[in-house]
Design goal:
The protein is of the alpha/beta class. Helices cover 50% and strands 10% of the residues.
Length: 462
């Protein structure tokens, strides 16, 4: 007897239940229902777009395995939100469950609408599913903030840290941390009304509300269980918006709702704010995110490389971590640029490539390099006498080493070709030929590229 689409989904759910924890199943799969299954198209009804983001980000593997086991290969998976809508754009179309999901017809994420009556089944928290605690590297520079954030996320009813005010310079992970708290709260209670909003968006919504219906604006924000406001310093010198936020803040705090804010400076250093609002920023917990230390920078590089499927050699990671010291965001940007350069140039990731990528992005302290340092480094690497490099010897190992000296003198030492020729007793044309010869060989000889990286590292090391 052929199973109905509900029975097939129930069978799939049993498989999923056997492969995840009871809480995970209860929170993310128990309420999913099968709307239909025909012609290789499975339509599942879920609570909201946030559920889709979480399912695809965190449970895609087990969901895909269950569908493949029960329904077979080449099944197309569709999600439909539980709200009553006829617009087909509210359905998210995924490719075969046997392959990596690709959104073919996708909803456009919209900011929460403060002029619409709250509906728990149609509420997008505006959280980035990648900003989880699992993806948030820990170190001494963020240990306190991370620990407090996890405490709030795991136990939202504990209001010891309410409000939470996270501050620190740009690029240290404030946005990631405060969104991770929201995601963790939603993991424990998918029905919690969590909202992430930037201060600029809050300001623009308030401006629109002042001209339309300010009561709807208040009603919307007073219904939030956990309000996360990013870059609160952007409300500086906006007395009307500050006054509105003051009353929303009071309502949420009096009703034991969690408030989380981020800023580029501590409340004590903020200017252009009403004193009564600043005092409320200090009511709960103020915690600073410091510049990433070397350990955190290495961990961020490793995690980012793993997520992008990039093989990042340890010497390259150490070089980047040692020179990119101000921002986690900048570290991630270097990895993205490195991957793009490696793909376009069809080259393996190396120190030389890393230096090229970072040349215009990061100010790197370099020691003064002279011709003698280069000849000694090359001779030491190839285990030959430095004096041989200045002779007329045509032996392959000496000739190659001599060309490498000329190449590095131009590249690392930034020396004029005539100066290089004078130093090594060769003509200007010979130096040009040597440099071009090494450049041509680098495209096909991996060992030569590795040798040059090693020699350059020894020259440029402190």
């Amino acid at each position: 007897m052929e199973l109905t689409h509900q029975e097939l989904w129930a069978k799939c759910c049993r498989f999923i239940q056997d492969n995840i924890t009871a809480d995970q199943y209860k929170n993310w799969f128990r309420d999913i229902t099968s709307e239909s299954y025909a012609d290789g198209r499975l339509v599942l009804t879920v609570q909201s777009s946030f559920f889709v983001d979480q399912l695809e980000e965190r449970y895609r593997g087990v969901l895909r395995a269950g569908i493949r086991k029960v329904y077979g290969e080449n099944v197309q998976l569709y999600y439909r939100f539980r709200t009553v809508q006829s617009d087909p754009s509210t359905t998210i179309d995924q490719k075969s469950a046997g392959s990596s999901p690709t959104i073919l017809a996708q909803r456009k994420a919209q900011p929460a609408n403060p002029f619409k009556q709250p509906d728990s089944n149609d509420f997008d928290p505006q959280l980035n599913p990648r900003y989880t605690f699992e993806n948030y590297c820990a170190s001494d520079s963020n240990k306190i903030a991370r620990t407090i954030g996890m405490s709030i996320g795991d136990n939202p009813s504990l209001k010891t840290f309410n409000p939470l005010f996270v501050f620190g310079p740009s690029g240290v992970g404030k946005t990631h941390l405060i969104q991770a708290i929201g995601i963790r709260i939603k993991e424990h209670n998918p029905h919690a009304r969590v909202l992430y909003v930037t201060a600029r968006l809050f300001q623009s919504q308030y401006t629109a509300a002042a001209a339309k219906n300010i009561n709807s604006f208040f009603h919307f924000y007073q219904s939030i269980d956990c309000l996360i406001i990013d870059d609160i310093q952007d409300l500086q010198n906006l007395p009307g918006t500050q006054n509105t936020f003051f009353h929303i803040f009071n309502h949420l705090h009096q009703h034991d709702r969690q408030i989380i804010m981020s800023s580029d400076c501590a409340p004590s250093e903020m200017e252009g704010f009403e004193a009564r609002l600043l005092s409320r920023f200090k009511w709960g917990m103020q915690v600073e995110l410091e510049r990433p230390d070397i350990s955190l920078r290495r961990d961020v590089l490793k995690l980012k490389a793993e997520q992008d499927g990039l093989a990042l050699p340890s010497d390259v990671a150490d070089y980047i971590a040692s020179n990119v010291t101000q921002s986690v965001r900048e570290l991630e940007g270097v990895v993205v640029s490195l991957m793009a350069h490696a793909t376009v140039l069809n080259r393996d990731i190396s120190l030389d490539l890393a230096r090229r990528v970072m040349a215009n992005a990061v100010k790197i302290k370099r020691r003064q390099v002279n011709f003698e340092m280069i000849t000694e480094a090359v001779a030491a690497h190839y285990n030959i006498c430095p004096d041989l490099l200045f002779t007329k010897s045509r032996k392959r190992e000496v000739s190659d080493a001599r060309q490498i000296v000329m190449y590095l003198a131009k590249k690392v030492g930034k020396m004029p070709l005539t100066t290089i020729g004078h130093k090594i007793d060769r003509t200007h044309a010979t130096v040009i030929y040597a440099c071009k010869s090494i450049e041509d060989r680098l495209a096909t000889e991996k060992k030569l590229a590795a040798d040059l990286d090693a020699i350059e590292a020894s020259i440029c090391s402190e």
